[in-house]
Write a structure and sequence with these properties.
259 residues; 12-stranded mixed β-sheet
Length: 259
Protein backbone atom coordinates (compact mmCIF):
# COMPACT_ATOMS: atom_id res chain seq x y z
CA UNK A 1 0.00 0.00 0.00
CA UNK A 2 1.20 3.56 -0.70
CA UNK A 3 1.57 6.12 2.08
CA UNK A 4 2.25 9.86 1.86
CA UNK A 5 5.50 10.95 3.48
CA UNK A 6 7.18 14.30 4.04
CA UNK A 7 10.92 14.93 4.07
CA UNK A 8 12.10 17.72 6.40
CA UNK A 9 15.53 18.97 7.41
CA UNK A 10 16.80 21.10 10.27
CA UNK A 11 20.36 22.35 9.64
CA UNK A 12 21.02 19.28 7.51
CA UNK A 13 19.62 16.78 10.02
CA UNK A 14 16.96 15.12 7.82
CA UNK A 15 13.81 13.19 8.67
CA UNK A 16 11.00 11.19 7.11
CA UNK A 17 7.65 12.22 8.62
CA UNK A 18 4.27 10.51 8.47
CA UNK A 19 0.90 11.78 9.72
CA UNK A 20 -0.15 8.84 11.89
CA UNK A 21 -3.16 10.37 13.61
CA UNK A 22 -5.34 7.57 12.21
CA UNK A 23 -2.78 4.93 13.31
CA UNK A 24 -2.44 3.59 9.78
CA UNK A 25 1.28 3.02 10.28
CA UNK A 26 1.26 1.28 13.65
CA UNK A 27 2.44 -1.86 11.86
CA UNK A 28 5.88 -0.43 11.02
CA UNK A 29 8.70 -2.76 12.05
CA UNK A 30 12.29 -1.94 12.92
CA UNK A 31 13.48 -3.37 9.59
CA UNK A 32 10.91 -1.38 7.61
CA UNK A 33 11.97 1.86 9.30
CA UNK A 34 15.64 1.04 8.71
CA UNK A 35 14.87 0.36 5.03
CA UNK A 36 12.99 3.65 4.61
CA UNK A 37 15.91 5.57 6.14
CA UNK A 38 18.48 3.84 3.92
CA UNK A 39 20.05 6.43 1.60
CA UNK A 40 20.61 4.00 -1.26
CA UNK A 41 17.61 1.69 -1.15
CA UNK A 42 15.03 3.87 0.61
CA UNK A 43 14.03 7.50 0.95
CA UNK A 44 17.08 8.26 3.07
CA UNK A 45 17.15 10.08 6.40
CA UNK A 46 18.79 10.37 9.81
CA UNK A 47 15.51 9.32 11.40
CA UNK A 48 11.77 8.76 10.98
CA UNK A 49 8.96 10.44 12.89
CA UNK A 50 5.27 9.79 13.38
CA UNK A 51 2.90 12.59 14.34
CA UNK A 52 0.09 11.21 16.50
CA UNK A 53 -2.77 12.48 18.65
CA UNK A 54 -2.47 12.50 22.43
CA UNK A 55 -4.97 13.78 25.04
CA UNK A 56 -4.02 17.13 26.53
CA UNK A 57 -1.46 17.97 23.85
CA UNK A 58 -1.55 19.31 20.31
CA UNK A 59 0.22 16.18 19.13
CA UNK A 60 2.64 13.44 20.10
CA UNK A 61 6.11 12.97 18.60
CA UNK A 62 7.27 9.39 18.03
CA UNK A 63 10.87 9.23 16.86
CA UNK A 64 12.97 6.39 15.42
CA UNK A 65 16.68 6.39 14.62
CA UNK A 66 17.92 5.38 11.18
CA UNK A 67 18.68 1.91 12.55
CA UNK A 68 14.95 1.44 13.18
CA UNK A 69 15.09 1.62 16.96
CA UNK A 70 12.85 3.99 18.91
CA UNK A 71 15.05 6.76 20.22
CA UNK A 72 15.35 9.37 22.92
CA UNK A 73 14.54 13.02 22.17
CA UNK A 74 15.70 14.59 18.92
CA UNK A 75 15.91 18.39 19.01
CA UNK A 76 16.11 19.04 15.28
CA UNK A 77 13.42 16.43 14.71
CA UNK A 78 11.16 18.11 17.22
CA UNK A 79 11.57 21.45 15.46
CA UNK A 80 10.76 19.85 12.10
CA UNK A 81 7.67 18.15 13.50
CA UNK A 82 6.43 21.51 14.82
CA UNK A 83 6.65 22.94 11.29
CA UNK A 84 4.87 19.85 9.94
CA UNK A 85 2.08 20.25 12.52
CA UNK A 86 1.67 23.85 11.39
CA UNK A 87 1.38 22.73 7.76
CA UNK A 88 -1.46 20.39 8.82
CA UNK A 89 -3.18 23.34 10.61
CA UNK A 90 -2.94 21.50 13.93
CA UNK A 91 -1.18 24.52 15.42
CA UNK A 92 -0.63 28.16 14.52
CA UNK A 93 2.36 29.93 16.08
CA UNK A 94 2.69 28.08 19.40
CA UNK A 95 2.33 24.51 20.58
CA UNK A 96 2.59 22.13 23.49
CA UNK A 97 3.40 18.59 22.39
CA UNK A 98 4.49 15.33 23.98
CA UNK A 99 7.77 13.56 23.24
CA UNK A 100 9.54 10.59 24.79
CA UNK A 101 11.25 12.83 27.37
CA UNK A 102 8.06 14.66 28.35
CA UNK A 103 6.16 17.82 27.41
CA UNK A 104 7.67 20.47 25.12
CA UNK A 105 6.64 24.01 24.28
CA UNK A 106 7.60 25.54 20.94
CA UNK A 107 6.88 28.59 18.86
CA UNK A 108 7.26 29.04 15.12
CA UNK A 109 7.63 32.03 12.79
CA UNK A 110 7.98 31.24 9.09
CA UNK A 111 10.43 28.28 9.07
CA UNK A 112 12.20 29.32 12.28
CA UNK A 113 11.32 27.17 15.28
CA UNK A 114 12.26 27.77 18.91
CA UNK A 115 11.88 24.58 20.96
CA UNK A 116 11.99 24.37 24.74
CA UNK A 117 14.23 21.54 25.88
CA UNK A 118 14.45 19.73 29.22
CA UNK A 119 16.11 21.29 32.27
CA UNK A 120 19.64 20.05 32.98
CA UNK A 121 21.11 19.69 36.46
CA UNK A 122 23.36 16.64 36.33
CA UNK A 123 26.67 17.15 34.54
CA UNK A 124 29.41 14.58 35.00
CA UNK A 125 33.11 15.28 34.57
CA UNK A 126 35.28 12.63 32.93
CA UNK A 127 38.90 12.79 31.82
CA UNK A 128 38.94 15.55 29.17
CA UNK A 129 35.15 15.38 28.72
CA UNK A 130 31.73 16.08 30.20
CA UNK A 131 28.55 14.01 29.95
CA UNK A 132 24.98 15.18 30.36
CA UNK A 133 21.45 14.46 29.18
CA UNK A 134 19.72 17.20 27.18
CA UNK A 135 16.84 14.92 26.21
CA UNK A 136 19.37 12.39 24.88
CA UNK A 137 22.69 11.37 26.47
CA UNK A 138 25.74 13.28 25.23
CA UNK A 139 29.50 13.15 25.58
CA UNK A 140 31.20 16.54 25.11
CA UNK A 141 34.89 16.91 24.31
CA UNK A 142 36.50 20.28 23.55
CA UNK A 143 39.08 20.13 20.75
CA UNK A 144 41.19 22.30 18.48
CA UNK A 145 41.26 22.06 14.68
CA UNK A 146 37.73 20.70 14.44
CA UNK A 147 37.60 20.96 10.64
CA UNK A 148 40.19 18.20 10.36
CA UNK A 149 39.24 16.25 13.48
CA UNK A 150 38.57 12.49 12.89
CA UNK A 151 34.97 12.65 14.13
CA UNK A 152 33.86 9.25 12.82
CA UNK A 153 36.87 7.30 14.10
CA UNK A 154 37.00 8.96 17.54
CA UNK A 155 33.24 9.14 17.93
CA UNK A 156 32.80 5.48 17.04
CA UNK A 157 35.52 4.48 19.50
CA UNK A 158 33.96 6.41 22.40
CA UNK A 159 30.39 5.34 21.61
CA UNK A 160 31.45 1.67 21.54
CA UNK A 161 33.77 1.86 24.53
CA UNK A 162 33.17 -0.37 27.55
CA UNK A 163 31.53 2.48 29.44
CA UNK A 164 28.94 3.32 26.77
CA UNK A 165 28.55 0.22 24.61
CA UNK A 166 25.32 -1.02 26.22
CA UNK A 167 23.21 2.14 26.23
CA UNK A 168 25.17 4.08 23.63
CA UNK A 169 25.92 7.79 23.71
CA UNK A 170 26.09 10.65 21.23
CA UNK A 171 29.63 11.99 20.95
CA UNK A 172 30.21 15.69 20.33
CA UNK A 173 33.46 17.43 19.51
CA UNK A 174 33.38 21.15 20.18
CA UNK A 175 35.68 24.04 19.32
CA UNK A 176 35.33 27.61 20.59
CA UNK A 177 35.42 30.10 17.75
CA UNK A 178 35.52 33.88 18.09
CA UNK A 179 31.77 34.45 18.47
CA UNK A 180 30.33 30.95 18.51
CA UNK A 181 30.89 27.27 19.10
CA UNK A 182 31.44 24.76 16.31
CA UNK A 183 29.98 21.32 17.01
CA UNK A 184 30.41 18.04 15.13
CA UNK A 185 28.48 14.98 16.32
CA UNK A 186 28.71 11.22 15.97
CA UNK A 187 25.14 10.00 16.60
CA UNK A 188 24.18 6.66 18.10
CA UNK A 189 21.45 4.96 16.10
CA UNK A 190 22.76 6.57 12.93
CA UNK A 191 26.24 5.28 13.77
CA UNK A 192 27.86 8.02 11.76
CA UNK A 193 28.51 11.74 11.82
CA UNK A 194 25.42 13.81 11.02
CA UNK A 195 25.38 17.35 9.68
CA UNK A 196 23.75 18.55 12.88
CA UNK A 197 22.32 17.23 16.15
CA UNK A 198 19.87 19.41 18.08
CA UNK A 199 20.27 17.80 21.49
CA UNK A 200 24.03 17.67 20.84
CA UNK A 201 24.21 21.38 20.09
CA UNK A 202 22.15 22.04 23.22
CA UNK A 203 24.43 19.82 25.32
CA UNK A 204 27.55 21.48 23.90
CA UNK A 205 26.32 24.98 24.76
CA UNK A 206 25.39 23.91 28.28
CA UNK A 207 28.73 22.15 28.77
CA UNK A 208 30.58 25.27 27.59
CA UNK A 209 28.64 27.47 30.02
CA UNK A 210 29.24 24.99 32.84
CA UNK A 211 32.98 24.76 32.15
CA UNK A 212 33.35 28.53 31.96
CA UNK A 213 30.97 29.50 34.80
CA UNK A 214 28.69 31.53 32.53
CA UNK A 215 25.92 32.11 35.04
CA UNK A 216 22.50 33.72 34.59
CA UNK A 217 20.78 34.24 31.24
CA UNK A 218 22.85 33.26 28.22
CA UNK A 219 22.45 32.93 24.45
CA UNK A 220 25.10 30.97 22.56
CA UNK A 221 25.44 30.76 18.77
CA UNK A 222 26.43 27.34 17.49
CA UNK A 223 27.67 26.36 14.04
CA UNK A 224 27.36 22.88 12.59
CA UNK A 225 28.21 21.39 9.21
CA UNK A 226 24.54 21.87 8.26
CA UNK A 227 23.99 25.41 9.48
CA UNK A 228 23.59 27.67 12.49
CA UNK A 229 21.53 27.30 15.65
CA UNK A 230 21.12 29.31 18.84
CA UNK A 231 20.85 27.87 22.35
CA UNK A 232 19.56 30.06 25.17
CA UNK A 233 19.08 29.26 28.86
CA UNK A 234 19.23 30.44 32.46
CA UNK A 235 22.03 28.99 34.57
CA UNK A 236 21.38 29.54 38.26
CA UNK A 237 22.33 27.43 41.30
CA UNK A 238 23.94 24.69 39.20
CA UNK A 239 20.77 24.15 37.15
CA UNK A 240 20.01 25.03 33.53
CA UNK A 241 16.38 26.06 32.99
CA UNK A 242 14.38 27.73 30.20
CA UNK A 243 16.59 25.95 27.69
CA UNK A 244 15.64 26.75 24.08
CA UNK A 245 16.99 25.45 20.78
CA UNK A 246 16.28 27.84 17.91
CA UNK A 247 16.88 27.31 14.21
CA UNK A 248 15.37 26.54 10.80
CA UNK A 249 13.08 23.61 10.02
CA UNK A 250 12.34 23.22 6.31
CA UNK A 251 10.17 20.99 4.11
CA UNK A 252 12.37 19.43 1.42
CA UNK A 253 9.75 17.46 -0.51
CA UNK A 254 6.81 15.11 -0.15
CA UNK A 255 5.89 11.96 -1.99
CA UNK A 256 4.39 8.50 -1.66
CA UNK A 257 6.13 5.27 -0.79
CA UNK A 258 4.95 1.68 -0.92
CA UNK A 259 5.30 -0.15 2.37
Amino acid sequence: MNYIFYKYQGTGNDFIIFDNRQHELDFLTKNQIKSLCDRRFGIGADGLMLLENHPGFDFKMVYYNADGGESSMCGNGGRCLVNFAKSLHIIDTETNFLAVDGAHYAKISENLVSLKMVDVADINSLTNALTLNSGSPHYIQFVNGINNFPVFAEGNKIRNSEVFINEGINVNFVEKLKNSLFVRTYERGVEDETLSCGTGVTAAAIAYAYANNLNNEQSISVETLGGKLVVSFNYIANKFTDVYLKGPAVLVYSGSVEI
